[in-house]
Design brief:
The chain contains ten helices and 17 strands. It is globular, with a radius of gyration of 23 Å. It has helices spanning 28-39, 162-165, 170-175, 197-204, 210-213, 215-222, 249-257, 317-347, 363-375, 390-401; strands at residues 44-48, 57-63, 66-72, 78-82, 97-99, 104-105, 112-113, 119-121, 142-146, 149-153, 182-193, 226-229, 234-240, 271-277, 281-286, 289-299, 302-311. Keywords: 2Fe-2S, Dioxygenase, Iron, Iron-sulfur, Metal-binding, Oxidoreductase.
Length: 405
Amino acid sequence: MTRLPYPTLPVPNDWDRRGLPAWTYHSEAMFALEREQLFLTHWQLAGHECDIPAPGDWLGFDLLGERAVVMRGADGVVRAFHNLCRHRGARVVAGDSGHCKGAIVCPFHGWVYDLDGGLRGPARPSSFGEMERAQFGLKPVEMEIFHGFIFLRFAPGPQPPVADLLAPFAKDFAAYKISDVLPAGRTKWENDLPVNWKSVRDVDNEGYHVAMAHPGLQELYGRTYRDLNLANGLTVSVGWFGDAPGRGWSVRHYIRLAPDRPDLPKHLQRAWTYYGLFPNTVIAMTPEGAQFYQDLPLSASVTRLTGRLYRHPDETRQARLARYLSYRIDRDTSVEDQQLSIWSNESMKSSSFEGFHLSDLEYGLRCHHDGLRHLMPVMTLPDAPPEHDIARRNAEMSQLSAPDA
């Protein structure tokens, strides 16, 4: 087996095999706490620099009441702003992506902003009296770029800078030349699922189910698949293909057409590799392309599955066909995972549900839950506190577990 160059966390000989208590999956108060202490304070992936190649190109990114716009300025620099006009708070752009020709014009009252976010001027400026324009530019959102991927964070949080956080992935990303990828057609996809976001992550954070639930993936690489848990909420999952002929149409032809990549290090050749970032993002690489996907909660009981697809700039016809086939395999896998997420989420409200009992092959799921418990220790309580008391109990438990307590 190819040796993987990652400092992984070993599975303990004796560990607590329980998962999160069921009440954490349907509590509105718990979800409100996750919004404030998890999603708004952790890095979220908004897209890739190649999605906004020209000055004035922009991407929209909404998350739990916050909304951002990522735009390439006239100087070629990528910046991120809150998507709120400084006059009345209207969106200055609407949609997933678009282009502003020379300036950003608010559709509500016509305030005009430069592409770097500075206020050029309000409509009918004399009606505002004395006004210092420099104080009314679009408010910036914290943003960092890693090998072309654009990360946002709406509030300060516990994660380090992206370059430090994702340093274990840097050599692989450089080998894939991921900074140079291009959008693959209609790059963005999304689908809303009637489940709590944690149920989606629970399915995706372990490969124990691959052999049974994903016949396509099992046929492609299931014999070699492994999940690796790294520090700081990072994971790597990888499977190598080509050691056996495929039987299904998509897998059989994919194995035949997947491009050889002798330029890649040994551990990435003939491999599908998934790089996970806590709490809700995965970047996936294959020989012929790349993608990212993430689970964006819309409410305690609805999650938006979304992501973007990319290709290499020197793509051959053979690689394009392989990318189409990998998309077909991924599409089937996603449908299978969505059904598993629904079943898992349903179980959380059953009086017969007694919690998880995890396999060593599901240790990644345990690590994910440990990350949530560390941030929100109220999740360690087996029984749900009263809804009105969850935030207070969490604050109390956080104070008791603080290093200086």
